[in-house]
Amino acid sequence: MCEHREGIGRFHYKPYDLLHHKPVFSSPVCYRSPRQDESFAVSVMSADLLRQKNGVEHHTDEYEGPHDVVRRGQPFDLCLQLSRPFVPDEDSFSLRLTTGKRPHVNKGTDMLLELSSSLPPRSWGVCVKESNGRSVTLTLSSPSDCVVGRYELAVGGPGNAEQYGNPPATTHAYILFNPWCNDDQVYMDGEEEKKEYVLNELGFVYTGTKNNINSRTWNFGQFEEGVLQACFELLDRAKMPVTGRSNPISVTRVVSAMINSQDDSGVLVGNWSGDYEGGTSPIAWNGSVEILRQYYGTRRSVRYGQCWVFSAVVTTVMRCLGIPCRSISNFESAHDTDSSLTIDAYFDENDKPMENLNEDSIWNFHVWNDCWMERPDLPRGFGGWQAIDATPQETSIGMYRCGPTSLNAIKSGMVYLPYDTPFVFAEVNGDRIFWLWKEDGAMERLGVERHAVGHNISTKAVGLNRRQDITEQYKHPEGSEAERSAVNQACQHGSKATLLKSDSPSDIAVKVSTDEQAVLGSDFTVDVNLCNTSAKERQVNITVQVLVDYYTGVTKGECKLKRFFMKLKPKEDQTVHLPMLHSEYLHLVNELCTMTCYVTGRVLQTEQPITKRHSFRLREPELQILCPQRAHVGEDMSVTIEFINSLPKMLHSVELRVEGPGFQRQHIVKLGNLRPGEKLQWQEVFQPVRPGIRKLIGSLTCKQMVQVQGEAEVEVV
C-alpha cells in the first residue's frame, strides 16, 4: 500500500478540464466515472513512482539525482493519491507515456495505456495492484525491446488522449536496458557477473607492458548525479533516432563514436603529444564522473584523453544505460593501418627503424571495451561479448568508431562479419613482418614474428580486486593448429594475403630482459641473450638500440646505441649487458615510463636476419593515502596523503586530485613545487554521503612527473 508523501520521485501533473479540454491550473486532474454525477467526480491529486521500492527491484536504487529509474521488460509500480476513495467497479484510468522530441504512436514512442485486469505479456500495459481508500497502486509493464530513454507520463480519464496535460519538467522517468530480463537483448546469466559488469562503480584499467602490468584504480561512477543525463545527451548530440535506441548494437556503435571528439564533437579530445596545455593530462584522471559532468555542463569536448580514459568513460556510459560492459587491456597491441592484417616494420641498412615508413605500429598496450548482447544480425553463436573501441585510430564507414565485433568472430578469424572485425583481429593476432629497405629502393623480407601481438589480454576479475587474463576468449593458444588456421583464414581477406608464408627457423634465438623492479630515476641494465641453436659455430653482428617511446610505439628519443660482434659455439649462449644511467634517459622519459629495446643484426655465415623488439617500463613512485578503516555517513573523516619526490630533480606545478564514488567529488589541490627528496604531506577532511565499502582514489601530477596514484578503502556505515 502506498502513502501520500511529499518529495522527490513524485509526479504532480498540470491538470486539464476533462469535459472541455481546457487547461485548469487551479485544480488537480479530474474526471467523472461513467455512473457518477458531478458531486462524485474523482481527481488525481498526485502520482508517486515509489522510487525506493522500484529502485531495489530494478537494481536502480543507487542512481543519484531527482530521477526515477527503472528497467525495461520488468513491471514497476505507480501510486496515485485521489480526491476520494477509489471505486474499483466504476473508476478507471488511462496513462500516456511518451519519449523523444516528437512522440509518435507508429514509432513506439507514444503509448496510451488503458487500465486492464492483468498485464499483457511482453508489452505495454497497466493494471490495479491494490487500493486502500484514496490510495491506488498501479502496476505498469514495458516490452523488453522498448526504446531506452527519458519518458514523460500523464494520467487521465479512460480512452481520451485529449485529457492529458503537459507534466512539469520533473515528472518523468528513465527506462534503461535490463540485463536481468530474459527477453532483453542484453540479458546476462549469473548474478555475480551482473553485479560486476553493470553495478560495480569501481574497477581497474591495466596499462604498462606485457611483463610489467600496472593496475590503475578507476571511479566509473555510473550512479553519480549528472551522469545519467550526460549519457542521453551523448545520444542526442549524435542525432541518434529515438527509435534506434531500443537496439544495443546501434547504441554501442554510436557511443564508440561519441566518446571521442574526432568528427562529432564527442566527449574527449585525444592527445598523445605530451603537451597538455589548455586541458588535463590523461594520467591525471581518476574517474569518468567529472569528465561527463564537464561535457554535459559545457556542451564542449573535454581535454584530454588517451586510450584507457576513452575506455573507462565507455564503461561508465554502458553500465549507466544498463548494458554489461568491461574495460579490456591488450598488451603488445597492433595497429594495422592498411587492412593487411599484418604489422610491417621497416629498417634501413644501418639496422635503424625507418620512422617515415613505419605507419603500422605495436602499442605497449591498448585499452578498449567488451559489451554483452545477443547479435540477431549475425549467425547463431556470435552473441555474447562484443568488442568496441572509442579511441580514434581508424575510420569505420566514415567515422572514428569501432565495433561492435563478436569475440567469437575474432577468435575464429571470420573477419568478414560486422563490425570492424579485421582491425580488432590484427590488434590481437596479426603477424609482425620485418623488412630491409635498401638504398636502391628494393625491399628484402627479413623475417616474421608470429607471436608478436596480443599478450595478457586483461580485465578485472568478477567480484575480485585482481586481474583476469582472458586471452583465450580472443584467440586460440599461440602456435596451435586452431590459431594458425584462424590467422590463415583472416589473412585471405586482407590486402596482402600473399605475404603469409613460412620462414626458415633462425639459427640464433634472442631474449632481452630488464629489471622489472627498476624505479624511475635509478640506473639499470638491459641484458641481451643470444643462443646458437644450430650444430655449427655462428658469428653474428648485432646492434642494440634503447629508445624512450610513447606507449603507442612512436619514438620520443634515442638513449643509447651499441654494436657487438659475437662468436657462438654450437648450442652456446652468451649475454651482453648494456648499462643505462638515469642521466641517459631521464630527460626523455614520458608520463608512462615506457621504453623499447631493438636488437637487429645478421648471422655472417648464413645471412639470416636477427630481429627482436622488447618493451619495458620503469616503476613510478607511490602515493600513500592514510585514513580510518571505518567512517559514518555525514560525519567528518580525516585523510592524510603522503608522497616523497625520489627523482633527482625539482618537480614543478604539482597537483593532487582526490575522488571516490559515494564519497567525494573530484577535488583538486595545487601544491606548488617539490624539491628532490622532499616529502609532501597533505591533510583534508571528507564527509561520506553513501554507505558501503568505498574507495578514495588519488593521483599526483606535474610537468615533469609520470603517473602516480594511490588508493584507500573505507567501510562507510
UniProtKB/TrEMBL annotation:
Q: Which UniProt keywords apply?
A: Acyltransferase, Calcium, Metal-binding, Transferase
- A GO term for molecular function: protein-glutamine gamma-glutamyltransferase activity
SUPFAM superfamilies, A to Z? Cysteine proteinases, E set domains, Transglutaminase, two C-terminal domains
Secretion signal: which residues?
A: none
Q: Which Pfam families match?
A: Transglut_C, Transglut_core, Transglut_N
Q: What is its EC number?
A: 2.3.2.13
Q: Which cofactor does it need?
A: Ca(2+)
Keyword Magnesium applies = no
- What protein family does this chain belong to? Belongs to the transglutaminase superfamily. Transglutaminase family.
Q: What is the protein name for this chain?
A: protein-glutamine gamma-glutamyltransferase
